[in-house]
Design goal:
Helices cover 41% and strands 15% of the residues. By secondary structure, the chain is an alpha/beta fold. Helix 13 runs parallel beside helix 14 and helix 14 packs parallel to helix 16. The longest helix is centred in the C-terminal third of the chain and has 22 residues.
Length: 574
């Protein structure tokens, strides 16, 4: 096998069949790899979400390709998985230079260098710094990187912005092949975010929005057209609707090449932007938009103010009603456990959500993630300003916003979990009973609706193994017991039990006795089973959980065995 100059590893938590994969290609590292390949360097992407991936496969691949550089995109949720992979890579490919980019690395560059044992952190967009690394430029001369010299922390000035037109279309052929896995067609029309939400670091990391020119976007889409038949084209980005003239230009372009006839598409929208420019909604629909996502976050104006988020809540109801009339499927996020959360704020948000359900008339889906304070956000840095106390700053009990890690002045962590569980019971049943999915979404079962909301675990499992109704009504009980792939993994796993990584298969709730519990699987868990389940977020090994809890490993092992028998957990290996 040919040698590789720069290998990018897109890390997904877990193992087959439970992967934190959205089926959207890893556009960030793929853009860098495509740019490097276009510049004459051999670059490849390994996506650990693909079914062929295993640690043994990676070891063989590294031995045969001996990459000069190996890069990772680091999100806070993936910190532990990447750290374990790095320890493996150091043994197999010791000459490779390890590089981290992504949100967590960009914000926490100093701690990333020391804790993950990597040589270089690339802050912000990675195309140009990666090329300069390969070209042999001195580290001190490369803008936008941080690194260590004899243990001394060095941080170069930020990299200047580069036009997105500088970079070629992402080349999917650079992802290591596997015929059993198909990505959804996806493009990134822009990068950056103009908003400054107190719970999100996107505006801090990339405050200037960069746009790719329309003629190149057209080429990007035409390249993906064979993948778009009977599928949904995904537009990746937070700020698509903030530039109305560009939206109209995009709609004209995509309609010309088949939008609405050959394929449909998805985008994220901003309620106030559409209120100020209502003509863009009909233009988007006419050109094939059939799935639109809004992040409302709360139905309470004072909470929205704390989030530094401007949303016209009354207009949002009218907008949902109009989307339903047109046949545009809407997904809306509400955060649970946010600033100054109380019984009253949750009750008001539920009442508001019910108005949206009525307005949506079957074209509405909602997700209720927990507030998850992330590095680089004001809530993480100053939780007391928001009436919050962060209980799990390292997010060891949470993955993809699926567990409460804070408490408010009015609500304990357990009360926040209980409230969310009741929201799900009260509202989602009403929502799903009315749901009218566009055919491409129904054909893909629940994958698009879940994955686009960031609910990664359900997306892959429901897409591959259970239908929409069964997934949401029955939960995950018994699903994994029927999967030969999972048992094959356990049979072939070379890791001792201590090193296996338990992963919850559903959200936790709090039962009436105050213990963490697991709906759809068991009515009662013992105290140690509850505590073990709480830390089974795909981040800690069984041995590490025992250490964290101060319990004997044998007691934790017994709890894990009992939890697996009732379908509450499965195991991963990194």
């Amino acid at each position: 096998m040919d040698k590789v100059d720069f290998l990018f590893i897109n890390v997904s938590i877990g193992t087959l069949p439970l992967k934190a994969s959205s089926k959207i290609p890893p556009l960030g590292v793929l853009s860098i790899a495509s740019f490097l390949e276009d510049s004459g360097y051999r670059s490849r992407v390994v996506d650990t979400a693909r079914p062929f991936f295993s640690i043994s496969w990676l070891k063989d691949y590294l031995a045969s390709t001996t990459p000069r550089y190996i890069g990772f995109t680091l999100y806070t949720d993936y910190l532990h998985s990447i750290k374990r992979l790095i320890s493996i890579i150091r043994n197999v490919s010791p000459a490779s230079i390890l590089v981290c980019g992504g949100p967590h690395a960009s914000i926490c560059d100093k701690s990333t260098l020391s804790e993950l044992d990597v040589e270089i952190v690339v802050r912000g967009n990675g195309e140009v710094p990666s090329l300069e690394l390969l070209s042999g430029k001195r580290l001190s001369e490369i803008a936008g990187i941080s690194y260590l010299i004899k243990g001394s922390y060095q941080r170069n000035p930020d990299s200047p912005s580069h036009s997105l037109d500088t970079f070629p279309s992402p080349d999917l052929s650079l992802i290591e092949p596997d015929s059993a896995f198909e990505y959804l067609p996806a493009i990134a029309p822009e990068r950056g975010c103009t908003f400054r939400c107190s719970f999100c670091a996107a505006g801090t990391l990339s405050p200037k929005v960069l746009f790719r020119s329309m003629n190149l976007l057209e080429k990007d889409i035409l390249k993906l057209l064979p993948m778009c038949e009977s599928k949904i084209l995904v537009l990746v980005g937070d700020t698509f609707t903030v530039n109305p003239s560009r939206v109209l230009e995009f709609c004209n372009m995509i309609k010309k090449i088949g939008g609405g006839k050959k394929f449909i598409w998805y985008a994220e929208g901003n309620v106030n932007s559409i209120r100020e420019n209502p003509e863009i909604l009909s233009a988007m629909y006419d050109s094939g938009l059939r799935f639109l996502q809004f992040a409302l976050e709360s139905g309470v104006p004072s909470v929205l103010k704390a989030y530094n988020k401007e949303v016209d809540l009354d207009y949002a109801i009218d907008l949902v009603r109009e989307c339903a009339r047109l046949g545009i499927f809407i997904h809306i996020n509400f955060i649970v456990g946010g600033p100054f959360e109380s019984d009253e704020t949750i009750s008001r948000t539920k009442a508001y959500a019910r108005k949206l359900i009525a307005a949506g008339n079957g074209y509405l889906n909602m997700l209720f993630p927990y507030l998850t304070p992330l590095p680089g956000t004001d809530i993480f840095d100053n939780p007391e300003k928001y009436g919050l106390k962060i209980l799990d700053r390292d997010l060891l009990s949470s993955f993809a916003f699926n567990n409460a890690v804070v408490e408010s002045a009015a609500l304990s962590r357990g009360e926040i979990i209980w409230h969310r569980f009741n929201i799900m019971l009260d509202l989602l049943g009403e929502t799903f009973a009315m749901m009218k999915l566009p055919d491409p979404l129904r054909n893909e079962r629940c994958v698009q609706a879940s994955l686009l909301a960031g609910n990664f675990h359900p997306a892959v499992v429901a897409d591959n193994y259970i239908d929409w109704n069964d997934y949401f009504v029955s939960g995950w009980k018994g699903v994994f017991a029927k999967l030969p792939e999972y048992h094959q993994f356990l049979d072939s796993a070379k890791e001792p039990f201590e090193q296996l990584i338990p992963i919850r298969t559903s959200a936790v709730v709090v039962n009436l006795d105050g213990n963490i519990d697991f709906p759809h699987v068991a009515d009662d868990l013992s105290p140690i089973q509850s505590r073990v389940l709480d830390l089974s977020a795909g981040k800690l090994t069984a041995e590490e959980i025992a250490s964290r809890l101060g319990e004997s490993f044998s007691a934790v092992k017994d709890a894990l065995i009992a939890l697996e028998k009732i379908g509450a957990i499965i195991y991963g290996s990194f």
